[in-house]
Amino acid sequence: MDIKSLFRKKSVEHLLADAEHGHHSSLVKSFTVTDLTLFGIAAIIGGGVFSTIGRAAYDGGPAIALLYLGFAVACVFSAYCYARFASTVPVSGSAYTYAYTSLGEIIAWILGWNLILEYAISNVVVAISWSDYFTTLLEGFGIHFPDFLTTGYYTVKEAHEELLNKGTATSPQIAELWNTAPNLWGIPIIVDLPAFLITIGLTYLVYVGIRESKNVNNVLVILKILAVLLVVLVGLFFIKPENWIPFAPNGIGGVMAGVAAVSFAYIGFDSISTTAEECKNPQRDIPKAMMYALLTCTVLYIATVFIMTGMVSYQELRVGDPLAYIFQKVNMNFVAGVVSVGAVIATTSAMLAYQIGQPRIWMVMSRDGLLPKAFSKIHPKFKTPSFSTIVTGALVGIPSLVMDQAYVTDLTAVGTLFAFGLVCAGVLVLDLQGIESKFKVPYINGKYWVGVLWIVILGVIFIYTDTLANWQKAFSNGEGIGDVALKILFILCWAWLSVESFRKNFSLIPVLGLLTNFYLMTELGTENWIRFIVWCLVGFGIYFGYSYSKSKLHGK
């Protein structure tokens, strides 16, 4: 095996030719810029604002709004890079396709493999969140689902082990399910049935047509924007400014503890690019839609954080349905009910967006020979990637029956940030190759700026914080040494980028995108990195066992 062959690339012309010919060319071109913007909002606003936002606020207090703003800035850097690629290569496949043209096949493969984390696995979290709000909504009508049919097996198992080890549990009712649920051969029957059923229903909708999916999505997105606006406008009348003090009760550490939850909240803006072959004018509309969607969602997120933490203490927000909870606390049960309806709508549209995106990534990977041909099969009647859609439904539906939401959220965040960072790196390669695009990333010469920023920020960190002392403590007692090692690795990578920027006049925006995404990855901790590395190793095993020899570029 020639090492160079691992980094073989597909030219832009080759990718465009593949998209224009063959059975996959029968995809229906129906998306306008408005459709794409709503599609992006559908993917971004879901479990992030109706579920994980409570977890983030519990850790960081009102200051978590700054993390939402900071992450939005990081996403803008990434969005510029995605837009550059989308205008250069208007082909489905998102980051996978972009990496194939710039970084080479093996990087494209591992990106495609990690996009499963961003789209399919993250949808498990959204499905679980949907189930929580749906069952709460039914309770308002006097309809009760048995708890053992609305809770994940591993959620109950973890709560039960916490009860055994500590004598108490965060959720005693959930912990007790381990003993009270029906069992089969001694194994408790505990499943989240609503999460599974909504996944199957949406998979069917995506299977039967993109126009139908798009129209349903547009209606759902408008309704969920109205629901979030209701939270903001009504919540204004119940704000107690004293709840915002202290602004950062757990310090910077508490704010950064919300990285996984906040990054999950922005997952999906790049899903717009997965529909490139179904857009009427992808080179013009995809860049616009990405920016419009990001701006809209960031404003709504920050407003929601301030309303939520202003209405109740941040200490009360570690609940699965925080927006409904805050209105129940002020005896606005009607609004809480409307919010629950909005949450069901919001998470439904987010799931729909992810269920549309993932099959199209697999379709393109199959087209390149890296997956079996069945994944690129287009249904003759419905004009959708049929087999890929069914597999996506199974990959989301089955884990949603049993998985714990927090575990999946953290794993998803690592894979997503990895994809965002590599797309930024790919733009640097396009610049070096001199490939022109209709969409231009604003050029700011990073020759000196990257290095200057490195020196300034390191100086601030080491002079005005206790970082160095904390690192020395970690090395002396061995606690948290892995997290420190990640930070040191980040500093060394920034130093290397400073040198390369000086040598090659790198554009500052993609460099900042690469750095911010990598830094946020380091904040997710060594445990999540270990899971991520194991996930990547499995992906490499599949590549070398099947995809390398089956690639259409093999032998060329």
UniProtKB/TrEMBL annotation:
It is found in: Membrane. Residues 508-550 form the Cationic amino acid transporter C-terminal domain. The chain crosses the membrane at residues 36-58, 64-83, 185-207, 219-239, 251-269, 290-314, 334-357, 387-407, 413-432, 444-464, 484-499, 506-522, 528-546. GO terms for molecular function: amino acid transmembrane transporter activity. InterPro entries: AA/rel_permease1, CAT_C. Signal peptide: none annotated. Keywords: Membrane, Transmembrane, Transmembrane helix, Transport. It comes from the Bacteria. Coiled coil: none annotated. PANTHER family: CATIONIC AMINO ACID TRANSPORTER 4, INNER MEMBRANE TRANSPORTER YGJI-RELATED. This is Amino acid transporter. It comes from Thermoflexibacter ruber. The lineage of its organism: Bacteria, Pseudomonadati, Bacteroidota, Cytophagia, Cytophagales.
